[in-house]
Design goal:
CATH class of chain A: Mainly Alpha
Radius of gyration of chain A: 17 Å
Number of helices of chain B: 25
Order of helices and strands of chain A: HHH
Helix content of chain B: 55-70%
Structural class of chain B: mainly alpha
Structural class of chain A: mainly alpha
Chains: A mainly alpha, B mainly alpha, C mainly alpha
Distance between the termini of chain B: 68 Å
Low-confidence stretches of chain B: 589-626
Shape of chain A: elongated
Low-confidence stretches of chain A: none
Radius of gyration of chain B: 27 Å
Distance between the termini of chain A: 54 Å
Strand content of chain B: under 5%
Mean pLDDT of chain A: 88
Shape of chain B: globular
Largest sheet of chain B: 2 strands, antiparallel
Oligomer: heterotrimer
CATH topology of chain A: Helix Hairpins
Mean pLDDT of chain B: 82
Largest sheet of chain A: none
């Protein structure tokens, strides 16, 4: 059996990649994907802990997270389309009129 | 005396009613002025009736407490919305409503034709209401309500002529400086509540339950300290020092007095009422009220004493070198407030209140007189453009002379008795340095009043661009009444053992347990001789040299003093120092923060970091700035800090 | 394998929540099929009615308490009074929006049910006693708010605000879930009571301790984001400025309140055992939040941004009440929330009244000379500004006083000091609005537009601001009662 620690290290690595993706990438779609990566890293950790403890709570939470992530992306993509229509860009750096 | 319980509520509520009507109903000048004056006059009449009722009680039970409702009630934390009337409050209320009513009436004439005059009277009535809450509150929270309220009204009234840039700036300055004092006051309240569990001044019975008052529980905190073990601070010292800071803001003491001279940008009746007779004395009143707390801290008391004495001297010297008729009086007010604060520092609270009352009378008189001069000379304030006005404005001249003599401390006018009592206390307590400072200041006082009277009323009119005329009856009658007050005010507390001689001391005795000051004939003679001499000198110098006073020119005394005169004129550059060392860095800090925490600035910051990484990592182009991503970056930095702290530093 | 056990479910305990959700869902359909275009105000009125009904449904539950869904949701007085606050906030925000939406040409019926869904998310946060439920509550609230923020389509600033909010919100959600995962890994449970019990029962091995602390820290950060604590606040000014003003008003009080309410439960119950770790963190966050929020507001000439920074500063004050894990602190928190919510809604109401069609300036200059044109409106705005600045006798003063005394008594004297000093600075920019209204001539012709909804909002807020300031005792009593039988 693979020790739980390995899963956690993997999930931490995925999570970090996700964070860096949000910080570095400019394409809004990729930013969303990076956020997804963060959420799925968390899911991995949850499942791993749930298996270690033989307790289903963690697995249940994963379903919620997946649902929420789907809803979030749905709204996000709708927004993206709206912005794309007016500004013709999917670059998060281009939408920066609000400041100060 | 059950009727007193509801009667005293009328005192603050009448002006409040006037305020509400003037804000929401009245739209025309004449009814607004009459309504406002009538309400304050009504409050004065009620106050007189109430005080007569109070005097009918035996001395030890002269404290009427009346609770409107329980303001705050949460377990141990009980604060009633209550007001009281005791001898100390009584004299303050009479001063506020009496002088206030006269100034309201005077304003009808002075402000005639002003386009926003309804608003003016509304503000003025609100001020009276708040000032009354300040002096009548039976707990610190009500006092604080009044404290903030009068500050707000003062702010609105200083900036009343907001078209003038100086007025708007002066208002903001007054506000900013006062915030320092107010913050200290709030901290003092928190500390008092934490130490005593109450904010009431005295025990008050509400619904059969006695709520404690902190002034009667001072012994509980004696010996208790706060602060680090290497530098413990007695609780009494900490609290009283915070209160002192509050008082220095409101009562314009060193180093926070800079706002008061600028506050003269407001209408002159406002200067008379708020910035001379009443609001600025709130700090003195507050210290007198919490006297038993101050008396427990020698450390604070010596601060009080020194601050008062130094303020008196600094402002006294500044007053000598001013050209603006109102700025002379403003610095003079600061200086006289210094006398009162110094008296508090000596423990001579009765003397402080005595001087507060007489000063309220003669300084209101002087300000109204200067207002009459300004009015009669078509908004001239520069004394270099005046001169020889005594023939054109006889009533103003004679009343002004009475006020000036009273301020200078000429026997037997009001100022002589009250100032002499403070000096006598300094002598009998052996506070030699302060005695000398205060004595010098009183000489300066006589000098600058002599100078002012000479410059304004004697000699020839130096500027003929206006035609001077005497003001109308509605303005001169208040002057006459106040002149009588300024002349006879000393009768309140004569230093002689005749029946009724120590009336004020006896009256205040239940609140301020203090013996009347010992009359020292030698000191009194010396002070009188000095006052007369210096007053005459000031008059003599400036009538003889009247020809040398030129519009826009230097003072005749400048030849002999040179740069020192400049220093005096600028009140020893305290303002400039603030601008240099406080205001500028604060602005810079605000601008810096706005830049750092807002996208524009952080952009540059991140760009910098980005270049740094580019330079370090040789081609790492990852951290190019983007706005949302910038936010995310700051977020991530926050995450790293929080997690870093939790995981590493708490190991 | 044991047969699957369905835990007993007591839906009565969720009556207000279910009312809001059910009503909103039905309203969504009614709006589409029954309410004709151009009469969408009716939807708004129905939404207000639904929120009020939900509040009324809560009334008989005052003496009921209990938990359901295996202890994931709880009904106690704390959650009930929060529910009432949220319902009022929602109803007032809708009242403000009734005329705002058509005036700006963005009237869509679904606006109103969306606000209701957001309120449902807030109630969920108040009632949740399990990290899973709290996560759902936050997301239900956030996702609706993303939509509401971008509601002024095709105004680009609105879309931009929504985009920023969404990206950062999702980012924060990632931390939240990961934090939950780590806490779950350390303790084997996500229930607040379970975590507390676990922490009380046994000492953790070093590894689990690390997991727990990191997890708790991440959960804390997620809440800090929602509450807009510095440095997790960067989205706030942009989002407030970009979103339709009634939405900004709703967010400024609702989101903050709900997140803080949940945070209180989390800290007081789940992580009480590790207080030594989170207290300094929160103290530092509170201090810099108060400083940055108030200093940031100083230079603003855009009233909406000024109110945004002000709301950041106020979050710092409210946090004081939560950190003092005492009854006094919790009382002060509830009281502050109520006072702040009503005051701020009133202030936003005045901003909306001055907002001209199709404009996005919200310049402070528009307030110049307001007293001459609309004395009542100016007096009301002055009242709100004084309350936000903490001048007696307004609600804001009482609230600050309670919070600061609670902090002082709770051993956080230095934070109270920071609070007093920053609020002394804060008075400056609030007063600037008053100065504009009373001490300046109108700079340009701005005709305030008032209507029934706005009037109701401003009058209710104004009366409440004065009333809470003058007679705070009943409200304090309610706050005290709300903490009876607080469940974890």
């Amino acid at each position: 059996m693979v020790p739980t620690a390995y899963y956690i290290i993997l999930s931490a690595a995925l999570f970090t990649i996700g964070v860096l993706g949000v910080l570095i990438r400019r394409n809004a779609i990729v930013v969303f994907m990076s956020v997804e990566l963060m959420l799925n890293a968390a899911n991995l950790a949850l499942v791993a802990f749930a298996r270690e403890r033989l307790n289903v709570d963690g697995q249940v939470l994963v379903f919620f997270v997946i649902t929420v992530a789907a809803a979030e992306v749905a709204v996000g993509l709708a927004l993206l389309v709206a912005i794309f229509r007016t500004k013709n860009t999917a670059d998060v750096d281009e939408v920066s009129t609000l400041k100060g | 005396m059950a009727y007193l319980n509801w009667l005293i509520w009328l005192i603050p509520l009448l002006p409040l009613l006037g305020f509400l009507l003037n804000v929401f109903v009245v739209r025309r000048e004449r009814p607004a002025g009459l309504l406002a004056s009538g309400m304050v006059l009504g409050a004065f009449v009620v106050a007189v009736v109430a005080v007569i009722g109070l005097a009918g009680l035996p001395a030890e039970s002269r404290r009427i407490m009346s609770t409107g409702w329980q303001w705050i009630s949460t377990g141990a934390f009980q604060v009633p919305f209550g007001i009281m009337l005791d001898p100390l409050t009584a004299v303050m209320v009479l001063l506020v409503t009496g002088v206030g009513a006269l100034i309201h009436i005077y304003s009808i004439g002075y402000m005639h034709g002003d386009p926003r005059v309804v608003r003016y009277f509304a503000y003025l009535n609100l001020f009276i209401t708040m000032m009354l809450f300040l002096v009548m509150g039976n707990n610190l929270l009500i006092l604080f309500l009044g404290w903030e309220g009068v500050g707000l009204c003062s702010f609105l009234l200083i900036g009343y002529w907001f078209e003038r840039r100086s007025a708007a700036e002066a208002a903001v300055k007054a506000f900013v400086v006062n915030r320092i004092g107010d913050a200290a006051f709030i901290l003092a309240m928190l500390a008092i509540f934490a130490s005593f569990g109450t904010l009431n001044f005295y025990d008050v019975e509400i619904g059969g339950v006695i709520q404690p008052g902190f002034l009667e529980r001072i012994p509980e905190i004696l010996g208790r300290t706060v602060g680090p073990s290497w530098q413990p601070i007695a609780v009494a010292t900490g609290i009283s020092f915070l209160l002192l800071i509050g008082a220095t803001g409101k009562s314009a003491q060193f180093p926070l007095f800079v706002w008061l001279p600028d506050a003269m940008a407001g209408p002159t009746p406002v200067s008379a009422l708020i910035h001379a007779a009443t609001m600025v004395t709130a700090g003195v009143y507050m210290m007198a009220r919490t006297e038993s707390l101050f008396q427990e801290s020698l450390a604070t008391q010596s601060w009080v004493l020194w601050i008062g004495a130094l303020t008196a001297l600094i402002a006294g010297t500044a007053a000598v070198a001013q050209w603006d008729i109102k700025r002379v009086l403003a610095y003079s007010t600061v200086s006289q407030l210094g006398f009162m604060v110094a008296a508090c520092g000596m423990g001579a609270y009765v003397a402080a209140i005595f001087h507060l009352l007489t000063h309220g009378l003669f300084k209101a008189l002087l300000f109204l007189g200067s207002g009459s001069v300004i009015h009669g000379t078509h908004d001239t304030q520069d004394m270099r453009r005046m001169g020889g006005l005594r023939t054109a404005m006889p009533t103003t001249f004679w009343t002004y002379l009475v006020g000036a003599a009273a301020l200078a401390g000429i026997v037997p006018l009001a100022g002589f008795w009250s100032k002499d009592e403070i000096l006598a206390h300094a002598l009998s307590h052996g506070n030699w340095p302060q005695l000398i400072i205060l004595f010098l200041t009183s000489l300066l006082t006589a000098f600058y009043m002599g100078r002012q009277v000479a410059l304004v009323f004697y000699g020839e009119q130096r500027d003929h661009s206006y035609h001077a005329h005497e003001s109308g009856r509605v303005m001169t009658v208040p002057l006459l009444i106040l002149a009588v007050g300024a002349a006879l005010g000393g009768l309140m507390n004569l230093p002689f053992s005749i029946p009724g001689g120590h009336w004020l001391s006896d009256w205040l005795n239940p609140v301020l347990h203090e013996e009347p000051g010992e009359f020292n004939l030698a000191l009194a003679l010396l002070a009188t001789a000095g006052a007369v001499g210096m007053g005459y000198l000031g008059w003599w110098v400036y009538t003889r040299n009247a020809a040398r006073v030129k519009v826009g020119g230097k003072d005749p005394a400048y030849r002999y003093t040179g740069d020192i005169w400049d220093g005096m004129e600028e009140a020893w550059y305290l303002d400039a120092a603030y601008n240099r060392f406080v205001v500028a860095p604060f602005r810079a800090l605000g601008g810096f923060l706005a830049r750092v925490f807002d996208p524009q600035g952080i952009d540059g910051l991140v760009m910098g970091i980005g270049r740094f990484f580019t330079w370090v990592g040789g081609g790492v182009r990852g951290l190019q700035s983007g706005y949302v991503r910038t936010y995310a970056l700051v977020f991530t930095v926050g995450v790293l800090l929080v997690l870093g702290f939790v995981l590493i530093f708490t190991r | 394998m044991e047969p699957l056990q369905i835990p007993p479910v007591n839906l009565i305990l969720l009556a207000p929540l279910l009312t809001v959700v059910g009503w909103a869902s039905a309203l969504l359909l009614v709006d589409v099929f029954l309410i004709p275009e151009g009469k969408k105000k009716l939807t708004g009125y129905l939404a207000i009615a639904g929120l009020l009904v939900a509040g009324l449904v809560g009334l008989p539950l005052w003496n009921v308490s209990g938990s359901t869904f295996s202890g994931m949701l709880v009904l106690d007085r704390y959650s009930l009074s929060l529910t009432w606050i949220f319902v009022i906030v929602g109803a007032l925000s809708i009242a403000m929006a009734l005329d705002y939406l058509p005036r700006h040409g963005i009237e869509q019926g679904e606006f109103y049910p969306l606000i209701m869904f957001a309120v449902a998310g807030m109630i969920l946060l108040a009632q949740g006693t399990d990290l899973i439920v709290l996560f759902l509550g936050i997301e239900a609230l956030s996702i609706t708010l993303y939509i509401l923020t971008g509601f002024a389509y095709p105004r680009l600033t609105s879309e931009e605000a929504a985009m920023k909010y969404l990206v950062l919100g999702a980012f924060a959600a990632g931390f939240f879930v990961y934090g939950i995962a780590l806490v779950y890994g350390a303790t084997g449970t996500t229930s607040l009571a379970g975590i507390a019990e676990f922490l009380g029962r046994q000492t953790l091995v070093a590894e689990d301790q690390t997991l727990l602390l990191a997890g708790a820290g991440m959960v804390l950060i997620a809440f800090s984001f929602k509450t807009a604590l510095v440095p997790f606040h960067m989205w706030t000014p942009d989002v407030y400025e970009g979103s339709p003003t009634p939405v900004a008003a709703f967010m400024s009080v609702g989101t903050k309140g709900a997140a803080l309410a949940a945070l209180l439960r989390v800290l007081a119950f789940a992580f009480e055992g590790v207080q030594a770790y989170w207290l300094p963190v929160l103290a530092a966050l509170a201090a810099i939040t108060m400083v940055v929020g108030n200093l940031g507001a100083l230079g603003q000439t855009n009233v909406k941004r000024m109110l945004a920074y002000s709301s950041i500063g106020h979050a710092g004050y409210i946090l004081l009440g939560i950190m003092v894990a005492s009854e006094r602190g919790a009382e002060a928190f509830l009281f502050y929330l109520l006072a702040y919510a009503l005051t701020n809604l009133g202030a936003f109401g005045v901003v909306i009244a001055l907002e001209q069609q199709g404009e996005s300036v919200w310049s402070i200059e528009d307030f110049a000379g307001l007293y001459q044109r609309r004395p009542m409106l100016a007096v009301a705005m002055a009242l709100f500004m004084f309350s936000l600045a903490g001048v007696p006798p307004t609600a804001g003063f009482m609230a600050k006083f309670f919070i600061f005394t609670a902090a002082y008594e709770g051993g956080l004297g230095w934070l109270a000091l920071v609070g007093v000093i920053t609020s002394a600075i804060a008075a400056y920019f609030y007063l600037r609005v008053v100065v504009k209204m009373f001490m300046q001539e109108p700079a340009r012709e701005v005709q305030p537009e008032l209507n029934r909804g706005l009037n109701a909002d401003i009058i209710i807020a104004g009366v409440a601001t004065l009333l809470i300031g003058l007679v705070p005792t009943p409200f304090i009593f309610l706050a005290q009662q709300s903490l009876v039988a607080l469940g974890g």
